[in-house]
Amino acid sequence: MRNKLILYSLTVFFIFCLSVKLTFGEDVAKKYQWAHLVKDTGQKAVDNLSKVSNPITIFMCGDVMTGRGIDQVLPHPSDPLIHEPYMKSAKGYVEIAEKANGTIQQPVSFSYIWGDALKELEGVAPDVRIIDLETSVTKSNDHWKSKEIHYRMHPENIPTIKAAKIDYCSLANNHVLDWGYSGLTETLETLKKANIKSAGAGQNLREAEMPAVMEVEGKGRVIVFSYGAETSGIPFSWAALKDKPGVNLLKDLSDKTVRQIKEKVWKVKKQGDIVVASIHWGGNWGFHIHPEQIEFAHKLIDDAGVDIIHGHSSHHLKGIEVYKDKPIIYGCGDFINDYEGIGGYENFRDDLTLMYFVSMDPSNGKLVHLQMTPMQIKQFKVNRASMADSLWLRDTLNREGKEFGTRVELNKDNILILQWD
């Protein structure tokens, strides 16, 4: 009897699909069939989103590294001289990328590097757009001599950041001081002139600790604190002090540090605010997330009033956790870099990246929806990823999210939707 009922149900469904095809055409029929097959994809997240009348949606991504090779193809390239052990000209990175994926017509437009991301941003229309800007923006030639790698983008190339309508840049990272204190000063001044907010670096500790506050009309505010950890490669000497420029460096991930952050958060947080802790931490390679980072992230949520952890430094994506309905992105992965053609870590697929769109309920600070657009870095720009690459990203996030009770589904539009317990 049960088998007959199943057979009957399938027959009715396919007769209906055939009638749709005959009445409305093949395209409509295909869409209905696909929608039927994936109707449960992201259902919890979709249901949550529909219940919130006025969510705040934030676009975030990992490291945007517009210096060095990227800077060389933009309209106003810096002096290509660099001081690396095996490379003395930033143009060398352009040559390596072109050898791998073909000629890049130079100069490119300011918007070029964002590629397909611009259309995606336009379609989703997030309320706030935040990135980790992992470069100095300066004409300074005063490179930090004890470092081997130095990133620099010419200040006249700042329109490339404006091209994506970026609202905010985190600066507490291991490249913002690559070209000295004068380079940091020019970076801060250039962003300010471009009306791009920043946090995580300043002329003194007070400035470096100060959050960026972004008003979202009719919804609330997004407040971003930026922190860096030595585990990401930030020299301890870069720490801002009371009377010394530098970055907002975490001394450790202790309870004392959590209490200090709590004091800063509760001085500015009001009802309806979404607080983001943007943290540059951990090494460049490896999916493992250190237990100390997990504990620290949990305590920032439990004790310090943080709603979103925006983690970056790893060159590839890492697992995602939703802790007490608050999203923790431990490692976003690089979003734009000049690593094309450089081998050695192919298994991590650092050419693949994600656009994270995080929707939060401002009434209670809880996550209601997190969708991710799969992208691939190729020819110094981000392009929509293929289905095969999107499936790789899905499987990787599911593997790494298993310990956190998170998983993702790939929907019919090639978008990843986060599910959580």
Write down the overall geometry. globular
Task: Please give the radius of gyration in angstroms.
Answer: 23 Å
Supply the helix-strand structural class. Answer: alpha/beta
Tally of DSSP β-strands: 19
Overall pLDDT metric: 91
Q: How much of the polypeptide forms β-strand, as a percent range? A: 15-25%
Distance between termini? 36 Å
Poorly predicted sequence stretches spanning 5 or more consecutive residues: 1-43
* Helical content class: 25-40%
So what's the oligomer here? single chain
Largest sheet: 9 strands, mixed
Please, how many helices?
12
Q: Helices and strands in order, then pairings?
A:
Blueprint: H1 2-24, H2 26-37, H3 43-51, E1 56-64, H4 68-73, H5 91-101, H6 117-124, E2 128-133, E3 136-137, E4 152-153, H7 159-162, E5 168-170, H8 180-193, E6 197-199, E7 201-202, H9 205-209, E8 212-216, E9 220-228, E10 246-247, H10 255-268, E11 273-280, H11 291-302, E12 308-312, E13 320-323, E14 326-329, E15 352-361, E16 366-378, E17 381-384, H12 387-401, E18 406-410, E19 416-420
Parallel strand pairs: 1-2, 2-5, 3-4, 5-6, 9-11, 11-12, 12-14
Antiparallel strand pairs: 1-15, 7-10, 8-9, 13-14, 15-16, 16-17, 16-19, 18-19
Report what the structure shows.
- By secondary structure, this protein is α/β, with parallel strands linked by helices.
- Helices cover 32% and strands 24% of the residues.
- It has twelve helices and 19 strands.
- The chain has helices spanning 2-24, 26-37, 43-51, 68-73, 91-101, 117-124, 159-162, 180-193, 205-209, 255-268, 291-302, 387-401, and strands at 56-64, 128-133, 136-137, 152-153, 168-170, 197-199, 201-202, 212-216, 220-228, 246-247, 273-280, 308-312, 320-323, 326-329, 352-361, 366-378, 381-384, 406-410, 416-420.
- Strands 1, 2, 5, 6, 15, 16, 17, 18 and 19 form a nine-stranded mixed β-sheet that branches. It has a six-stranded mixed β-sheet with strand order 8-9-11-12-14-13.
- A hairpin with a 4-residue loop joins strand 15 (352-361) and strand 16 (366-378).
- Helix 1 runs antiparallel to helix 2 (26-37).
- The radius of gyration is 23 Å and the shape is globular.
- The two termini are 36 Å apart.
- Mean pLDDT is 91; it is low at 1-43.
